[in-house]
Specification:
The complex is a heterodimer. By secondary structure, chain A is an alpha+beta fold. Chain A folds into 2 domains: 308 residues, no CATH class; 54 residues, no CATH class. In chain A, a hairpin with a 2-residue loop joins strand 19 and strand 20. Chain B is an alpha+beta fold. Chain B has one domain. Helices cover 30% and strands 21% of the residues of chain B. Chain B starts with 8 loop residues before the first helix and ends in a 17-residue tail after the last helix. Chains A and B meet through helix 5, helix 6, helix 7 and strand 9 of A and strand 9 and helix 6 of B. Strand 9 of chain A pairs antiparallel with strand 9 of chain B. Chain A: This is Glutathionylspermidine synthase. Chain A: GO terms for molecular function: ATP binding; ligase activity; metal ion binding. Chain A: InterPro entries: GSPS_pre-ATP-grasp-like_dom (IPR005494), PreATP-grasp_dom_sf (IPR016185).
Chain lengths: 389, 207
């Protein structure tokens, strides 16, 4: 795993416009950054990232399997009491999932370590599945990168195949897709999923989360009063379960992507549970609940809110002293504690690897660089290639 | 190979956001789909006409008529007021509809006919509920319309050419009593000013 300086494709911004990639620059800062790329060997990708991703995912599912049968755990995962059945039933019924992203710390050597599981509303999907794929096509065609180069990016192919599978279970049904208003990045991600669903032959309609209605007969509706029977939402379950329409969730019969059981998988309480069930696993960092911290012997740790997004409200503690903290509106539901394992540095940047799954199949990686140890929403996205074995 | 073998770039390409060009693109799309994915069907005003026309297909006519009625019940247009309904479908064309398990009632247009066509696989017949309007200012005056608003033909019984999609299952419609029950947490968290981003308004709620 090395970082290589690279020539930007001339006119790549026009290409971005051509393909509707509008959020490559956000708040005046570059988000997509092709002034460099990462190069992996095939062995690094397959042995150190792909295989552990498949295994970690199964371990996470084992935690869900246990949590849905244990009221004490449902409480620890901060699932509101009224929705325990919704979450547990969706798991027992085997409701199908679409995708997740595991965040990993990996330097090219040694085992990758799991930071967290973004299993409910992961973003940077378009960049991973399509845009970095197109970057490699262009770079190979211009002769900048040898034709023998590959990339770990089967996200798009697997997404289309997954949608085709899901279609079998929803014959003739329209899939609604939803995200919040006023976020170009989320809208772009949902548009990408809509393109993939259409490619699989699914009829789709878009609705903003805020515009979803309560229709007569305890149904969810879109702005044209059409009933929402099956919907992808880029909006976290932990929010939905605490909002006024949550009482309708059980009665409406609507099928959700991701399903309600993802509220357990995308939850930071997953991390101490993984450590309990799979102690000393090479891809896990020691993690504890609040009340276990004192007896844990952890002296250098990261304190993370049970619910938080984009690295908000995270603090790093070394020998009893808080050395770095990010701000944010989260933390009301409590915290978990994870052994401090700083991200590797490449050319002064802290690099985080996102490892994607479509359902339970590893499907590609994404790389984010940040000037800070805590990766936040301003971190840049860099492409990668695989060269050599 | 660890990457997607090939991608349909045409689907990934997005038209530039210019209203005049978008309209043109849409017009071309309709024209193209009109000649490639359409087929012949018959619009019948009632069941008897279908049977009279196709005595050997009486059972198929009956099934088609019943499934069109069922489609009209679940997916047909619904209105809060009789006036709103009649301004789309004409005087005396609307009736009160009281759904099961619902408190209120609606005004719905009466089904004016149904489409009848042999399925693409040739072994079955398909149908779709049809509406028309006797009000001259209605957009479907002198035309047929499906439950999901596809407009074609002249509103009279006979052969028509329709898009294959006219036979697809229609999404069910209902009356919406309230909106905005999701999204309140985001609204509250958006007020938080300490984000690393300079201004609120474009933060991702994914992660």
């Amino acid at each position: 795993m090395i970082r290589l300086i690279s020539r930007e494709r001339p006119g790549w911004r026009d290409r971005a416009r051509e393909f509707g990639f509008h959020f490559h620059t956000m708040h005046g800062e570059p988000y997509w950054d092709e002034s460099a790329y990462y190069q992996f060997t095939l062995k690094q990708v397959e042995d150190d990232l792909e295989a552990p991703t498949a295994e970690l995912h199964q371990m996470c599912l084992a935690v869900v399997e246990r949590a849905v049968r244990d009221e004490e755990l449902m409480r620890r995962f901060r699932i509101p009491r009224d929705h325990w059945d919704l979450v547990a039933d969706s798991w027992q019924a085997g409701e199908r999932s679409l995708y997740s992203r595991l965040d990993l710390a990996y330097s090219g050597q040694g085992p990758a370590k799991l930071y967290e599981n973004n299993a409910d509303t992961p973003t940077s999907l378009y960049e991973t599945g399509f845009w970095q794929w197109l970057w490699l096509e262009d770079k190979v065609n211009s002769g900048d990168i040898p034709r023998s180069a590959d990339q770990f990016t089967s996200v798009q192919e697997k997404l289309v195949n997954r949608f085709a599978e899901l279609k079998q279970h929803h014959p003739g049904e329209t899939l609604h897709l939803a995200c919040c208003k006023d976020t170009e990045e989320d809208r772009g991600t949902v548009q990408y999923l809509e393109d993939c669903a259409n490619e699989a032959g699914i009829t789709t309609r878009f609705v903003y989360i805020e515009d979803i209605g309560h229709g007569e007969g305890d149904l969810f509706t879109d702005l044209d009063d059409q009933v929402i029977r099956w919907i992808f939402k880029l909006y976290p379950w932990e929010f939905m379960l605490r909002e006024s329409y949550s009482a309708l969730l059980e009665r409406s019969g609507t099928r959700w992507l991701e399903p309600p059981w993802k509220a357990l998988l995308s939850n930071k309480a997953l991390l101490p549970m993984l450590w309990k069930m799979f102690p000393d696993h090479p891809n896990l960092l020691p993690s504890y609940f609040e009340e276990e911290l004192a007896s844990s012997a952890l002296t250098c740790f990261v304190k993370k809110p049970i619910f938080a997004r984009e690295g908000a409200n995270v603090s790093i503690h070394i020998d009893g002293e808080e050395v770095l903290a990010s701000e944010g509106p989260y933390g009301d539901e409590g915290f978990i504690y994870q052994a401090y394992c700083p991200l590797p540095k490449f050319a002064g940047n802290h690099t985080l690897i996102g490892s994607w799954l479509i359902d339970d199949q590893p499907a590609g990686i994404s790389l984010r660089e940040d000037r800070s140890v805590i990766t936040q929403d301003l971190s840049r996205y860099l492409p990668h290639i695989i060269l050599g074995y | 190979m660890k990457r997607t073998a090939s991608i349909n770039l045409a689907r990934m390409r997005k038209a530039p956001v210019e209203p005049c060009r978008l309209a043109l693109v849409a017009a071309i799309a309709v024209a193209v789909s009109g000649c490639s994915d359409s087929r012949e069907a018959t619009a019948y005003s009632d069941l008897e006409d279908c049977i009279e026309d196709n005595p050997e297909l009486a059972q198929q006519c009956r099934t088609a008529y019943e499934s069109a009625l069922a489609e009209a019940a679940t997916s047909g247009p619904r209105y809060d007021s009789e006036l709103a309904c009649e301004s789309d479908f004409g005087d005396d064309s609307c009736q009160v509809y009281q759904p099961q398990n619902a408190s209120g009632s609606w005004f719905v247009p009466a089904m004016a006919g149904f489409l009848f066509a042999r399925a693409l696989d040739g072994n079955r017949y398909q149908s779709s509920a049809l509406y028309t309007s006797s009000y001259y200012r209605s957009p479907i005056y002198g035309k047929w319309s499906t439950a999901d608003g596809r407009v074609f033909g002249n509103g009279r019984q006979g052969r028509v050419t329709v898009d294959n999609d006219a036979f697809k299952p229609k999404p069910a419609a209902t009356r919406t009593m309230s909106r905005g029950g999701f999204g309140s947490v985001v609204a509250a968290k958006s007020n938080f000013g300490g984000s690393s981003r300079s201004s609120s308004g474009s933060r991702s709620w994914g992660g």
